[in-house]
Write a structure and sequence with these properties.
Radius of gyration: 24 Å
Number of helices: 14
Structural class: alpha+beta
Largest sheet: 9 strands, mixed
Oligomer: single chain
RNA sequence: CGGGGUAUAGCGCAGUCUGGUAGCGCGUCUGCUUUGGGAGCAGAAGGCCGCAGGUUCGAAUCCUGCUACCCCGACCA
């Protein structure tokens, strides 16, 4: 993409409403635009990041055996009356009425709808286990939306729903999602720590929140220091291996970790002082095993091997990609701007033409741009007629992980500069070497 | 939902107390000079001063009502 033809409204000054760093940087980098309290447009640069996050979430859901579908944002109130949540959900649910005076709502979550889908088609235990998910907009009419897309009213959520014949099978489904989440967050460059959580209005008895540590986190969290050194399972792990899944779960839940609501002060203080981590955390995922709460209420039953009908065991599993975009920035930024992990960077690399209009520099940039593009890289080429300082600032602000800086001084000696945004390390290389080095990474 | 605040050009702000028809910085446009960490000079465009009503010869400014947004707290993917 040539920057001169792209739509990237970056700002030098920070709009005053932005309090936390991710919100400020998302606005300044031209990723989002506020349309109303807690409601945002995702501008082109932000959308690229969001799409990359979604792709990783999707890959890991699929790897764990979940199957994607797409449910609507607008739902009928009738389904919610069946489960009893139409009354129970409260003012967070945005209720609307259509032209025929029918009660509708903007979905805050989809347990009812997925249960309706399940019971319409699945009759036999032989069709289990089943895990269906979608990535869809949700609306929760928060009393006080804040922190940009971190706590917005409209937000994107990946929500998966598992259906199993019995509690043991449901437990395995839970462990699979647990493992998939660890892998997902690791691929997004985040260190997420599972913490036992309250189940709230979703219901059930087993639940974990995945929390990343960040000073701007909304809740206080407490955990064992060893979590910071733990590595997520690699892609060779077998999701159908019950013992392996249980092993991952046990490993990641064996140490103390709790949010403020679930905090056990005595247990925490029993740890050696050096092992205690007391910090702020951002919730980026939440999983629930709630048994037959919805299947009972909505009669989602299957015939078991013995011919008798049983209510299916269910679980639900949520990740907020829009919140994740902000959380990744909270975890990766410096004074100059965002520092994206390669996996979610809006572009794989940037080329800064320090003297647009200079024949040699233009030609060198064009060649680099073409060659990297042919190698399958997504490159942002800053071909604008701007001063070098403005280009450096823009590249750093939007956080491109790898930048090739091309100017007359270097070219005179046959080199360009390759800069690593994260480490700040720069090296002078021939254009060939720079292309090879960048493409070798993929 | 309680408490506090703000609303003036794309962004950040001054002007409001003390009424006289709107200004600064950044950004944008034109031209020239510049070009390795957000350039300089010259010129230009851009504003129902949140909305509605009132007071007044005259309202960004005073009065009344409304709306939107932000912050602190309680609640939440």
């Amino acid at each position: 993409m040539r920057l001169s033809r792209y739509f990237l409204p970056i700002m030098r000054e920070t709009p005053k409403e932005a309090e936390i760093v991710s919100h400020r940087l998302m606005l300044r980098a031209g990723m989002i635009r506020q349309e109303a309290a807690g409601i945002y447009t995702w501008l082109p640069l932000g959308l690229r990041v969001l799409n990359k996050i979604n792709a990783i979430v999707r890959e890991e859901q699929n790897r764990a055996g979940a199957i994607e579908l797409l449910m609507p944002v607008i739902q009928s109130a009738d389904l919610w009356r069946e489960s009893g949540r139409y009354e129970a959900y409260g003012k967070e649910m945005l209720r609307i009425r259509d032209r025929h005076e029918r009660d509708m709502l903007f979905g805050p979550t989809n347990e009812e709808m997925i249960t309706g889908i399940f019971r319409a088609y699945v009759r036999s235990y032989k069709d289990l286990p089943l895990n269906l998910y979608h990535i869809q907009w949700k609306f929760r009419d928060e009393v006080r939306p804040r922190f940009g897309v971190m706590r917005s009213r409209e937000f994107l959520m990946k929500d998966a729903y598992s259906f199993d014949i019995d509690a043991a099978a449901a437990r395995h489904s839970y462990n699979k999602m647990f493992t998939a989440y660890l892998r997902t967050f690791a691929r997004l460059g985040l260190k997420a720590i599972p913490m036992r959580a309250d189940t709230g209005p979703i219901g059930g008895d087993l639940s974990h929140e995945f929390i990343i540590l960040a000073s701007t986190g909304e809740s206080a969290v407490f955990c064992h220091r060893d979590f910071t050194g733990m590595a997520a399972p690699d892609e060779a792990i077998d999701f159908d291996d019950r013992a392996a899944m249980r092993g991952v779960f046990d490993q990641w839940t064996g140490l103390y970790a709790a949010t403020e609501e679930m905090h056990d002060k005595a247990a925490f203080e029993a740890l050696p002082e050096a092992d205690r981590v007391s910090a702020r955390g951002i919730e980026v995922g939440h999983i629930f095993n709630f048994g037959t709460k919805y299947s009972d209420a909505m009669k989602a039953v299957v015939n078991g091997p013995d011919g008798k009908e049983v209510a299916v065991q269910m679980g639900s599993y949520g990740i907020g990609p829009t919140r994740l975009a902000a959380a990744i920035i909270e975890a990766g930024h410096d004074e100059a701007g965002i520092v994206w992990p390669d996996s979610v960077a809006p572009f794989d690399a940037g080329i800064a033409n320090l003297k647009a209009g200079d024949k040699a520099v233009d030609a060198a940039c064009e060649e680099l741009y073409t060659r990297l593009g042919n190698a399958g890289m997504d490159v942002l080429y800053d071909d604008r007629d701007e001063r070098p300082g403005a280009k450096f600032a823009a590249m750093d602000l939007i956080g491109l992980p790898h930048q090739i800086i091309v100017g007359p001084k270097g070219l005179a000696g046959g080199t360009v500069e390759l800069k690593n945004r994260r480490t700040g390390q720069r090296e002078n290389l021939t254009p060939d070497a720079a292309v090879n080095k960048l493409t070798a990474r993929a």
